[in-house]
Amino acid sequence: MISITIKKMGRPKAENPLTNDIKVRLDVQTTKKLDEQCRESGRTRAAVIRDALREYLGITQEAMTDKQLEMILTLVTDKFEKCRNMDEVKKAVEQLKEMAEAD
């Protein structure tokens, strides 16, 4: 008899799965500021809200996941890929510094 094991396809199990879905209503001004932060940081609304709530509650995060590091590297690559001269490189460096200090 031949036995064949077929592994399930799909996403790997998360260490700390985000299983709770919470709806929040925001005023126009707060939504605009949230969207501005999302644009500047290249992150989703959910990620920004999660991090802000964790900071407010004093919850510390473990080390970055591979996915988070990959996102950061992609953001940095995108910033520098568009640079055509050293002035644009300096500007990109300053923008990245500001983003890092904001978080």
What's the topology here?
Elements: H1 28-41, H2 45-57, H3 66-81, H4 86-102
Q: Report on the biggest sheet.
A: none
What is the domain total for the residues?
2
Rounded mean pLDDT score: 80
Count every helix, treating DSSP H or I runs of 4 or more residues as helices. 4
Sequence stretches where pLDDT stays below 50 over 5 or more residues:
none
The proportion of strand residues reads under 5%
Oligomer: single chain
- Provide the structure class: mainly alpha
Name the shape in a single word.
extended
Task: Count every beta strand, where a strand is a DSSP E run of 2 or more residues.
Answer: 0
Straight-line distance between termini: 58 Å
Radius of gyration: 19 Å
What order do the helices and strands follow?
HHHH
Helix content: 55-70%
Quick summary:
Helices cover 58% and strands 0% of the residues. By secondary structure, it is mainly alpha-helical.
Describe this structure in words.
The protein is an all-alpha fold and 103 residues long. The protein has 2 domains: 27-61; 63-103. 58% of the residues lie in helices and 0% in strands. It is extended and about 70 Å long.
Provide keyphrases for this structure.
single chain, 103 residues, mainly alpha, 2 domains, 4 helices, 58% helix, 0% strand
